[in-house]
Amino acid sequence: MLFNKDTVQMQAVRYALRPTEGYGHFFILASAQSGITTTDGLKDVEIGVSQGTVIEYVTDRLLEAAGLTADEIKTIAVPKIPDRMALLASGELKAGVLPDPLASLAVGQGAVIVADDSSHPEYGFSVLSFRKDVIDAHPKAVRAFLAAIEEATTLLNADPAKYANVLSEQKLVPPPLIGKFQVPPFPSAGVPTEEEWNDALAWAKGKGMLTVDVSYADSVNAALLP
Fold first, then answer.
1. Please, what is the Cα angle at 41 between 37 and 46, to 5 degrees?
2. Residue 122 class from Cβ within 10 Å (0-12 exposed, 13-18 middle, 19+ buried)?
3. What does the pLDDT read at residue 96?
4. pTM, to two decimals
């Protein structure tokens, strides 16, 4: 979105990950020492996030959906995830937001899940994007890439245990989670909706990150999907 504020440079061509029931992507966690277990307990509590990112966006939207007002949502910049995890574990930070699988690791160390985006997949998804000039110059290659992603998605979703060794071989999850972490279902071919785009755009403008409307039609391209 930010890449396209002046001219179209990037296009989202597919969902990469999208939360589903029982499989969140981003988690609002409370430290074990905080005593916080519900979203009401997060009113006026500083929540560690990486500001100006999807993590801050998801935090705002999940807490708003839970009934908190903008004035009751307090975030503090803790850009580095290892720092966020360490501060949560020590109790110096009462709450913080982490992506999985690091959220699962933090829970194993005592953190408490207060909310996650599995009930609001419209907020916590990620996308695959290409530069517009690459799409224009090599559409067949991009289509082939997306076809391969679709094939891999089908195989993984059909039998995730068959490919569990990839998690350790490619160091995709922390060692303590090997054999424990459940791979989430991957989304089938699709792109963000215009409603999802407009909500993220409104948030970015509200934060002062953008001052102009960025076109959904120019920035999201579903034409290359298999």
1. 110
2. middle
3. 98
4. 0.93
- pLDDT at residue number 195: 98
- Give the pLDDT band of residue 158 (cuts 50, 70, 90): very high
Q: What is the mean pLDDT of the chain?
A: 96
The amino acid at 39: T
Domains and CATH numbers, the chain: 2-15+128-193 (no CATH), 26-119 (3.40.190.10)
CA 124 vs CA 20, 31, 53, 178: distances in Å:
10, 22, 11, 24
| Cα angle 77, 82, 83; round to 5 | 45
Separation between Cα atoms, residue 9 and residue 219, nearest integer Å: 8
**Helix boundaries (H) for 76-172:** 81-90, 102-108, 132-137, 139-158, 165-169
> How many DSSP H helices and E strands does the chain contain?
8, 7
